[in-house]
Design brief:
Layout: H1 12-18, H2 58-71, E1 79-83, H3 86-97, E2 103-107, H4 114-123, E3 127-131, E4 147-151, H5 163-172, E5 176-180, E6 198-202, E7 216-220, H6 223-236, H7 242-252, H8 255-274, E8 280-283, H9 293-299, E9 306-310, H10 314-323, E10 328-329, E11 339-342, E12 355-359, H11 365-379
This protein binds pyridoxal-5'-phosphate.
Length: about 375
């Protein structure tokens, strides 16, 4: 929905800095400030666009345009809705599209809240099937499914699957296709152009990139399906605050700068880790010999900021995390400040005890690599 008339540039940087901006108005700011409103003046008969604050907000409208311009440049048929968090967005798609007796296909190696969503779907009488992300294994369990949920690259294992191939197979069976685009960001991957019906993401991660906002969104190209998502947002009330929406929009202006820097450094860090004998199971989709690279290269334009690897023991991994000075021991990913964690501390992910998920920030690559290598040295017995 690019009706602002300002998205004239073709490059990602140009698109990011101008995304969603309204027409310039003399004496007005370029990006209008957050609109704090529970209700709007509404004399007479009820008519839109802005009636009540849970239904719509002008600050959301600009952010939704911005995200839509990045997820599907030059496509007028795409609608974007922002929600309170990535999980709110995922729930909005899953629970608005399926009914008792429907079957849903999820990955079995995706985001750690998926098993909770699975349990809730099953409690509502929905059949849930799972398969791994790698090797397009979800293809084998698609028959009679209502909705296929894809997460590529998967979090935290960083496997990939072929979105176009899976979407074609799902559509041939009458299923809708949703892709979790959190890790890739719209600058890394455009699921709607690859055939998905929904691109769903957490804006909490690299999209906003500063670790200070929770946000989610759904972009979709089927009007009826998106109307159901909108209705779900209204009845559940999982809406972002105007301040969060405005901060997110402001942050998107630097998306291309951040993503390019963080991806380039992530590759450098992965290359440095590859030389270390204590590191096993190193994964980064941008490494040419990574098992995920072939599929990633055909559908991604950037490979993300997350690197994962395994250290020999839990104790070694904990000492490594303690020894890092430029990398905070914290969950989540995508922020300008590097973070890492021992993923096994949460339980739930099928990962070794020494498995580390490292999110590469915007620090200088030389500083970050030096810090990681020093922490590896210091954490050795
Ligand atoms: C974090 C994350 C989510 C959930 O997002 P929240 O904003 O934390 O609710 C969903 N999918 C993936 C892949 C994530 O990393």
């Amino acid at each position: 929905m690019s009706d602002s008339g300002t998205s004239v540039g073709e490059g990602d940087g140009t698109r990011a800095v101008r995304a969603g901006l309204p027409e310039a108005v003399k004496n007005e700011p370029t990006l209008p400030g957050p609109v704090f409103a529970a209700h709007y003046h509404l004399p007479g008969d009820v008519s839109g666009p802005y009636t009540y604050g849970r239904d719509d907000n002008p600050t959301w409208t600009l952010l939704e345009r911005a995200i839509g311009e990045l997820e599907a440049p030059a496509r007028e048929d795409v609608e974007t809705l922002v929600l309170a968090s990535g999980v709110a967005a995922a729930s909005a798609v899953l629970f608005s599209q399926v009914r008792v007796g429907d079957a849903v296909v999820l990955p079995n190696d995706g985001y750690q809240v998926l098993p909770l969503l699975r349990a809730q779907l099953e409690a509502y009488g929905v059949e849930v099937r799972t398969a791994p992300t790698a090797n397009d294994a979800q293809l084998d369990v698609l028959d009679d499914a209502k909705l296929l949920w894809i997460e590529t690259p998967s979090n935290p294992g960083l496997d990939t699957c072929d979105i176009r191939r899976l979407a074609e197979a799902a559509h041939a069976r009458g299923a809708l296709v949703a892709v979790d685009n959190t890790l890739a960001t719209p600058l890394g991957q455009r699921p709607l152009e690859l055939g998905a019906d929904f691109s769903v993401a957490s804006g909490t991660k690299q999209l906003t990139g500063h670790g200070d906002v929770l946000l989610g969104y759904v972009a979709g190209r089927d009007g009826e399906a998106m109307a159901a998502v909108r209705r779900w947002r209204k009845i559940v009330g999982a809406i972002p605050g105007p301040m969060e929406a405005w901060l997110a929009h402001r942050s998107i202006a630097t998306l291309q700068l951040r993503v390019d820097r963080q991806c380039a450094t992530a590759l450098t860090v992965a290359e440095a880790l590859r030389e270390r004998p204590e590191v096993t199971g190193l994964r980064y989709p941008g490494l040419p010999d990574d098992p995920a690279h072939k599929v990633a290269a055909q559908q991604m334009r950037r490979y993300g900021c997350v690197v994962s690897f395994t250290l020999p023991t839990r104790a070694r991994a904990e000492r490594f995390l303690d020894a890092l000075r430029l990398v905070d021991d914290a969950t989540s990913f995508g922020g300008v400040r590097s973070t890492a964690e021992r993923r096994g501390r949460w339980g739930g992910d099928a990962v070794p005890e020494g498995f580390i998920r490292l999110s590469v920030g915007a620090e200088d690559a030389e500083d970050l690599v030096a810090d990681v290598l020093r922490a590896l040295d210091e954490s050795a017995e």
